[in-house]
Amino acid sequence: MSGWDVVAAMGLVDAALWACAVVPRPPARALQRLITHCRAPAAAASPGVGDQRHPAHIARRRGRAAELRALRKALPDALDTLALCLRAGLGLHEAAAEYAKSATGAAGDAFRGYLAELSVGRAPDDALEGLARRYPLDEVAVLAAAVAQSLRIGAPLAEVLEAQAAHCRTLMLHRSREAAHKLSTQLVLPLVAFIFPVVFIIGLGPVALRIARLVGMIR
């Protein structure tokens, strides 16, 4: 095998790795139907496991995760808005109602659910507990506990909401830093799969050619 063959083989290997990682390979419809048909008895025998693997369940779970991420992102601004309404002279329920009128997304839905529980006669503590149960986030749980305690002891709610908004932003900053630290680890595979083979071809290609010429001259 000559030096050019070695360089060409290394280039083909790198191109194959790139194609396997980038080009999507959707399964054929017939194969997908066969897999679904084979998994149907197992799903019927164990409905819990089958439901978790069902595409509809996976889609709902991903949608729920996206809703929680949206609420986590919008919660600090929502708390600042409620604090401004409280400082303007409104009560907590009136401030939540004013915010729910114009708010969209997960934060608006969360406070509309809170107001709906209040409208059917539930106590504020129970409505806050239901809010934390519907949205299982640490920020929401801490917020519900802090607001419930403030309502019981008569502490100023505006200051509590502002402190919770600052706490939520601090947690978001910490998560962003953790994601940035993990990025270096996640870049190892792309570097090994795509960058390093090209560097090896460029750096070792001429050396391989010279070695091949020397071997040919010796022979």
Question: Which architecture name of the domain at 74-184 does CATH use?
Answer: Up-down Bundle
Structural class: mainly alpha
The proportion of strand residues reads under 5%
Low-confidence stretches: 21-31, 40-50
CATH class of the domain at 74-184: Mainly Alpha
Main sheet overview: none
Number of strands: 0
DSSP helical segment count: 10
Name the helix and strand elements from N-terminus to C-terminus, one letter apiece: HHHHHHHHHH
Account of the protein in words:
- By secondary structure, the chain is mostly helical.
- Among the domains are: 74-184, Receptor-associated Protein, CATH 1.20.81; 187-219.
- It has helices at 3-22, 29-45, 47-53, 55-87, 92-102, 105-119, 124-134, 138-153, 157-186, 188-218.
Overview in brief:
The chain is built from ten helices and no strands. With 219 residues, the chain is mostly helical.
